[in-house]
Amino acid sequence: MEIQVSSELCKLVPGFNAGVIHYRNIEVGASPQMLKGRLQLFQESIFFDLEDKKVTDLEGIKEWREIFKKAGKDPNRYRPSAEALYRRVQKQNYLQTIHSAIDVNNFFSLEYQVPIGIYDSDKIDGDIELRLGEEDEQYTGLNGRPNSLHNLIVSADEHGAFGSPFVDSERTAVSTKTKNALQIIYLRPSLGVEKNSQLTESLMNMFLQIHGGEGSFLMTGCE
Asked: Is residue 221 within 8 Å of residue 23, measured between CB atoms?
């Protein structure tokens, strides 16, 4: 499975890059108490930090809103998923535990202020391209409704788009039956390759600590 970024996306967002992690032989289930506790405490800390500032003032959120604008998507109508999480926390509508894979995703998305997607890799076929969604392209998202992908950054296989920094599709959703997974961290170009590589590896190590199995990661982006 090869992963690349389209030339069109690179022209619009020259520094675009992503961390891609492959997991094999993992066990997804209920989150351990350690993860549940850290996620809850972190959300409470964020809530108090946001009492005197706006979500859009946060550096990571601000940067991803700009990326959406460069790609041609209005971030006021289509918010990056990390921003949507922060807005929930700001309203004290805290994220509830779902299962271990999603809970790890949410924790690191809040910590890094970036969108992160996790996908059942056994439901992905062929090579993957990170590109812009086409005019009539859409999929049913994890939000339970059809989502227009036009001018949205998407991750796509030979069947079409399956994920994005906005909302992921139902088609490749991870469940407790998932044994092999692909995780895409839609990184912040401003942090540079070395820092983004460290963040990706840190996420992989925590995921493996909780889920077992084996993992490997690579960085992909615009040169």
From this structure: no
